[in-house]
Amino acid sequence: MTDTRESGTRSRTRRAILAAAASVLARDRGATLADIAEAAQIGRSTLHRYFSDRQDLVNAAVVDSFRVVEKSTAGAAIDQGPPIEAMRRLIAALVDAGDRLAFLFGDPRVLEEFTACFEPDLSVPTTVTLIERGQAEGVFDPGVSAEWIQQVLWALTYTGWEAAEKGLLPRHGVAAAVTRAFESGMVVSPARP
Amino acid sequence: MTDTRESGTRSRTRRAILAAAASVLARDRGATLADIAEAAQIGRSTLHRYFSDRQDLVNAAVVDSFRVVEKSTAGAAIDQGPPIEAMRRLIAALVDAGDRLAFLFGDPRVLEEFTACFEPDLSVPTTVTLIERGQAEGVFDPGVSAEWIQQVLWALTYTGWEAAEKGLLPRHGVAAAVTRAFESGMVVSPARP
DNA sequence: TGATAATGAGACATCGAAGTCTCATTATGA
DNA sequence: TCATAATGAGACTTCGATGTCTCATTATCA
């Protein structure tokens, strides 16, 4: 899928811009193209050489972030082993891709826009598949939809990332805190309502 | 605190603008003042008669939303009864104030800005107080900070609101889904890591 | 009803970000 | 080294949101 006609230099610059865009926009959606260029350590005019539009840049950043998260997910091998263990690997992977996830999750509109027109890599097992597998095995709550569980997963991961940003959680404790919240909730001896 | 010199008409219009602002901005942070005026069913020039600045409007909307959420919280009487029950009432109240919460929670910067300069009504028991009470009684997870639990609470509530917006959850099921997630997490037989 | 408050429509100026372009400089690779 | 690719700085235009203002109309209340 990568354009092989693009030189190494250009390819590297492009990646830097996309990473900077996701990182900056995750923290401030109203950020200026100048802000993004500065974060990418390039001139604003250079940015325009790669992406004609702001919209063009955002679109590319979304697709790119999808790919990055997808890759992280793939690395967690979530189609193997017990669902609980697979989910713990997935959470760790998602936390690692925090910037990208925060960028995607932080803007509901962006996500919606692309869910329709963006066809995911079918060779990569999806999060929903893992959740459904866990539900079938009676490990994940079968009383709610897999999509809801996925939303909760993303929300908790995002919250963990944000908490670390604010200094509320130590970086190295995010994955554990998210995992714990996801698996057990906040009540010690849960009484199902 | 309400300016008694303001006529009933103006007071009503002001409230309508603030409610519209929170509602519109919760769904689209980049929304135009024209969008907000339209949602409030007033002319754009009228809006400027009430709030000189965009910043002025946003500030007022934040303060107002704080008050609304505070009032909801107060109505839940979270300083009374078992913490679990109090938390369930609180979640129901927060879900009811969904728009306002989404507005406040959806923009981390807004929240930060005001947490410092905005002194809360001390006569109203705070969420953190409830959480700490629950932790002291061994009901809420004492292994994490109360602030983290509060973040999770807000995140889950926001996610429930958003899921309802997207049609992923029925409106009447949001509070139950959030409560369940908050208390028990997503795993049927939790194995604490 | 009559005085006044409140509003809506819209013209107008302003301002900042976005986007375009040029030219000199630096980096890359054959 | 040399040709070419890539970049940075900055001038410039465009465009849309914002903020100001006027005037006619409508709503409110004594």
Automatic annotation (TrEMBL), chains A, B:
InterPro entries: Homeodomain-like_sf, HTH-type_TetR-like_transc_reg, HTH_TetR, Tet_transcr_reg_TetR-rel_C_sf. PROSITE patterns: HTH_TETR_2. GO terms for molecular function: DNA-binding transcription factor activity; transcription cis-regulatory region binding. The keyword Cytoplasm does not apply. This is Transcriptional regulator, TetR family. Pfam families: TetR_N (PF00440). Residues 32-51 bind DNA. SUPFAM superfamilies: Homeodomain-like, Tetracyclin repressor-like, C-terminal domain. Residues 11-69 form the HTH tetR-type domain. The keyword DNA-binding applies. PANTHER family: HTH-TYPE TRANSCRIPTIONAL REGULATOR BETI, HTH-TYPE TRANSCRIPTIONAL REGULATOR RUTR. Keywords: DNA-binding, Transcription, Transcription regulation.
